[in-house]
Amino acid sequence: MWSIPKDILEAEILCRLPIKSLLRFKCVSKEWHCLISDPKFALNRQKKQGEIDNNNTIHQRVLVLAISPDSLQSLHCLTRCITELNFNFPFESRPNVIIGSCNGLVCMALHGCKDFFIYNPSTRAHKKLPDPDISLGSPYLYGFGYDSSTDDYKVLAVSCLRVLLKVFSMKAFSWRDVQYNLSVKLFYGTESPPKGCLFNGALHWLVSGFHFGSQDPVIIAFDLAEEKFCRVGEACHPRSVSLGVVGGCLSLNVCCSNCVDKTTDFELWVMKQYGVHSSWERLTKIDNDMMVRYHGSLVTLCTATGTDGSDEIIMINKWREFISCNLNERTLEEIYHPNFDWCETVSYTESILSPNVL
């Protein structure tokens, strides 16, 4: 029997506890084990943590997957602490593509669209997914997200050359073909990653505007509930290089190069009203001196809260240096430079959610 009302135990006590404590408390009783293992509890805990610490910015982390040497690390955005994570995956080959993250879960796979699996970096729990029945080839776009309308987690893979769209459903635990509803092929820019940016219940990509009759890059989205593509609109600048989410808005990183005086400025723009082109607003601008020091193009990973309470954007550049952009002071600072030949990254928040109970 519960010694405290279940709703108070869950909402006011367990939801406030760190992951390590929750894992220990699973052993208290069968009731506690069932409650803490419930996916609904995991989602409620994330909402509660978001209310406590300003949308989980304090608990924001970045997963770093590297090859040569093989490594899987977690960077805590507030403390800058690095935690080495053990792979411990019972597979012959290790992951080298990060598909995306959602609600504390990370989807990873091998090149060639094989050996997909869902992994929780906070608990080390993982689950292997079946392979798609055919090879998608390269290049392809991909993404991972949550469909709240059906309480389902989905993986998306799109072949750019073969106009082929595959969706994996965790509930059905299978891949299926989905009708490709765009009239053009998709090609992402050389600087823009093929990993979909999850926002507003949809996966977003910055793609070439050539087939859309635009000289500027175009933002397209795949609605996870309707399972259809749509065009969100043109980017705010022809030199837009990557998408992100900042302050609850879709964001764009812009590198403005001047060929005459050989300077490069960095600008961060946000779409204040989703889908409305006129609502693009420049959030900050970093001048050339800072950009020269930190080697050009920056990709947004996540927003964070600095040790002094300032608003920060955690980014990574082409040399795999992790950079903090202080929005209050408009400055850049290197926070981590791993000694890897190559790495993949994604931001995530700590979660108790297990991929084995979805």
Tell me about this structure:
The protein has a 4-stranded antiparallel β-sheet with strand order 3-2-1-24, with no helix packed on it. The chain has a 4-stranded antiparallel β-sheet with strand order 4-5-6-7, with no helix packed on it. A 4-stranded antiparallel β-sheet has the order 8-9-10-11, with no helix packed on it. The chain has helices spanning 6-13, 19-25, 30-37, 39-52, 288-293; strands at residues 60-67, 71-76, 82-84, 97-102, 105-110, 114-119, 126-128, 140-147, 152-159, 164-169, 174-177, 197-199, 202-207, 218-223, 228-234, 240-246, 249-258, 263-271, 280-286, 298-305, 311-317, 322-326, 331-336, 342-349. The chain is 12% helix and 43% strand. The protein is mainly beta. It is globular, with a radius of gyration of 21 Å. The longest helix is centred in the first third of the chain and has 14 residues, at 39-52. The model has no long low-confidence stretch (mean pLDDT 82). It is built from 5 helices and 24 strands.
Coarse structural class: mainly beta
- What is the CA–CA distance across the termini? 27 Å
What Rg do the Cα atoms give?
A: 21 Å
Biggest β-sheet: count, sense, barrel?
4 strands, antiparallel
Number of strands: 24
Which percent range describes the beta-strand content? 35-45%
State mean pLDDT (0 to 100 scale): 82
Count of discrete alpha- or pi-helical segments spanning 4 or more residues: 5
Helix percentage range: 10-25%
Reading side by side through the largest sheet, how are the strands ordered?
3-2-1-24
Dominant shape: globular
What pattern of helices and strands is seen along the backbone? HHHHEEEEEEEEEEEEEEEEEEEHEEEEE
Low-confidence runs = none
